[in-house]
Amino acid sequence: MKKTSSLVIAAAAVAMALVSCTKEITANKEEGKGINADGTRTLTVSFATKATKTTLLDDRITPVWAEGDQISLNGTPYDVPAEAVGTSTCTITTGIQGDITAVYPADAYQSTAPYFKVKDKQDGSFGCANICVAQAAAGVNTLTFENVTAVFEVTVPDGTTKLTVTSLGKIDSETGQRGKDADDIVAINTTETGAAANVITVEKEDKGAFEEGPVYVAVAVDPENGVLLADLNFDIQYKDSESKEHYAQGGVSPNYIKSKGQEPLEYKAAAGTIYTPVLHEYVLLLVDGKKWATMNVGSSLPTDYGLYFAWGATTGHEANEERTAFKESYSFDGANLPFAVLNNEGAPRFTKYYPSDQPYRADNFPGDTKTTLYLEDDAAFWNWGGAWRMPTKDDFDTFILGASYTSGNFEHKGVTFPPAGYGQSNTIRVASNGYYWSSSL
């Protein structure tokens, strides 16, 4: 199946609701003309006509049939006629006279509710990701497909050979970090054997490279335990024109979700919606297996300064072209600091991450034992999503200690730290010093 950029994949009711009771099915039925003279039944097959705007995209997409497309009618594959290629409607003749459950693509069919499966190995095509279900009772000759998966459109560079999508552990409310127990993992696919898992691999059958552009991934949407957008990580590997290996990862950033009016740490992926994760390059530190971004948050090049943040703030501030102040007037003073209240003298006192023995703890604040920023206060996670987070002090020590430095950009193991100075009411010591936050208290 191909796509055009004029309309949207129609939003669907969640899969279980779509197929689990007659009431929902009936809404999509129209009375047909019954049985043909030869005893066969001709079905008009199309996609839902609702032009519902997607949740996180401004574009609309409508699916159209492609050469070689097949749909399943009660488990039997039927070819989409050649004359239907490039349109959203086709007719199919079948000998089935009773109730019909149709699934596109045909190989996504399974015999039990919700009547479709999301594969753990996908080919990156829009048709593979756009899993649709339709139903018709006996005597009804109209099948209207509705999308039953969340679809992710990932832009990849030339030379990309594999995309891996992983459902990460949920964010633990006690520690503010990701849990690692099996119970924390939500399934995002149902494999051929019916076993649920949390990893999807997208690659071509011949293991060749994708052309630069979008790769599509279908993720299962469970109405009860649907995966949170914040818990999905996308990871690719690719080779450049000199056959050098590169890696990138990312997700749908909480800041992006929030800008669309959603609650980022509670927002579940929805059926019939296309999402656009954004990936950022990394290098793999072999000594401890950590992945380090090749550039700062807010940068487009490794040598860019990026954004300036207060510790624990998730919104950054950009320097002007002269790098002498901020583009928009801003001051990192007490009133603007996260978790801060001002005392009678106007000095900041903090209500979070300051244990009882700390001098800047707010009056009457009982203190806490938090020593690392929660992900809800982590600038890297909020701006980039996926598995990104700020380094801890131990991460920095492992990565940097013992490295030599002369002047200019500090470059170490493929990662660049430009001398961006730091921020107060303007930028300080730009080009001569570089100051970087860890997530440690």
Contiguous low-pLDDT stretches (5 residues minimum) are 5-32, 50-58
Helix content: under 10%
Number of strands: 27
Contiguous helical run count: 6
Distance between the termini: 51 Å
Strand content: 25-35%
Task: Enumerate the strands of the largest sheet in spatial order, edge to edge or round the barrel.
Answer: 5-4-7-9-10-2-6
Global shape = elongated
Largest sheet: 7 strands, mixed
Q: Rg to the nearest angstrom?
A: 26 Å
Task: Determine the mean pLDDT.
Answer: 85
Alpha-beta classification: mainly beta
Outline the structure in words.
- The protein has 441 residues and is mainly beta.
- A hairpin with a 5-residue loop joins β17 and β18.
- About 8% of the residues have low confidence.
- It is built from six helices and 27 strands.
- The strands form eight sheets. Strands 5-4-7-9-10-2-6 form a seven-stranded mixed β-sheet. A seven-stranded mixed β-sheet has the order 8-15-12-17-18-20-21, with no helix packed on it.
